[in-house]
Amino acid sequence: MLETVDLHARLDKSEYKETLDKLDLQLAQLQRDLRTAGIPVMVVFEGWDAAGKGSALSRLLQPLDPRGYKVHTISPPTDEERMFPPMWRFWKRLPARGALALFDRSWYRQVLDERIDDNLDEAACQDAYERIRVFERQFADDGGVIVKFFLHISKKEQRKRFKKLSEDPAFSWKVGKAERRQHKRYDEYAGAVEDMLRETSTPYAPWTLVSATDQRLTGVTVAEALVAAFEQALASAQSEPAREHQPSSRRTSPLDRVDLTLAVPIEEYKTRLPKLQAEVRRLQHLCYVQRKPVVIVYEGWDAAGKGGNIRRLVRDMDPRGYEVVAIGAPEGDEKTHHYLWRFWRALPKAGHLTLFDRSWYGRVMVERIEGFASVGEWTRAYREINEFEAQLVEFGTVVIKFWIHIGKDEQLRRFESRQQTPHKNWKITEEDWRNRERWDDYWHAVSGMIERTSTAQAPWTIVEGNDKYHARLRALQEVVDRLTGALGDKK
Description:
The chain is an alpha/beta fold. It contains 18 helices and 10 strands. The protein folds into 2 domains: 2-238, P-loop containing nucleotide triphosphate hydrolases (Rossmann fold); 254-487, P-loop containing nucleotide triphosphate hydrolases (Rossmann fold), CATH 3.40.50.300. It has helices at 13-37, 53-61, 88-91, 113-117, 122-141, 155-166, 177-184, 186-200, 215-238, 266-290, 306-314, 341-345, 366-369, 375-395, 408-420, 430-437, 439-453, 468-487; strands at 41-47, 69-73, 100-104, 145-152, 207-211, 294-300, 322-326, 353-357, 398-405, 460-464. The strands form 2 sheets. Strands 2-3-1-4-5 form a 5-stranded parallel sheet, sandwiched between helices. A 5-stranded parallel sheet has the order 7-8-6-9-10, with helices on both faces. The longest helix is centred in the N-terminal third of the chain and has 25 residues, at 13-37.
């Protein structure tokens, strides 16, 4: 692809000024229109060292309102960032709806600098390409716009610019070992760039190759591409959405096979509980030693006992190594971002545990049932959730997911008990009763969720919850078994 770029093209000064003046007015108006429409934008600048990425970015920002954008300069990951999945630091930087995020370098470091400098093999590169495609597609599916530029110059031009920068004390620091190494291995980098362009230029996030020999031409090329992308996004947002069809209800469910009569005598419960809690504490410390992150998800019917289950699990754990995240309806900035944004931000670093009381599965349950997510959004979420969890597992995270299941009659008994018990009646709300009226709708939603998101790498464990003693021991034992297997613990 790089051979298609005309590196000798030039733009005269008068044409440049006339063209860019018009484009600046368009960009300023389009930024306001994007904010009104609530469309988030990511603009990526990649290219050769000394190709002029900083200058192109600076020129682009001149007509824009600085209150509506943020610039991110991406360096190699820090020691802290390496303790999270590779895309974590970029999910944290997603723009809010109506805002622009501009990246000077980006997630493409994985398949450019890291590929060459760390000698990544083909399998590792393919994994990185897939992570990138998933990241960009999920952002675009949520209504976001991605515009990606690669600024291209010849090896001769790069050498010329390096020489000029090195001669000026104010800029000589820009030409260090890494830059000289890239120049020396220019042809290897060019091969990596070709692979990157081929693997990640998609309909939802295409690459724009920019001839960067002439700075004026670079400025106009960038501005024209952004105008075209922004206009297309606004036109798409105003078009009539496709008619959505609600999938038909399923006849069978994995919940049908749950034996809710299972129970544990109180004596057995009191004997086994402290032993399991002590083992969980020991395994927590092994997770820290081995730098193994753990994500534990609790979902279940209202009054199923999630809170009591979580309390027993963390009872003897070191509080410095875990966090419990209670998930409710999105608030504040959470409403202005992709629904997975807040969960990426809450992930544990390597060696720590995070327990989610409710989770990203709200998209395919309460948001589906209550109409907060369109049919297109919640049906797409099955794939997005599987991709999200696959990235966690690929990084080495142990993902444990519980659905605590109780019968409809048992739920009613617990609701009534809560209402009649002064120190528990705060737990029962009008929303709980309203959800109960839609039991059958939730039954179908839960069934679909389990069937479509229980994978080999992140399976669901359905916990028989009518007897709380059994449910607590069952969950604790599952955590012990899963962590023991993941840690290779022989004890």
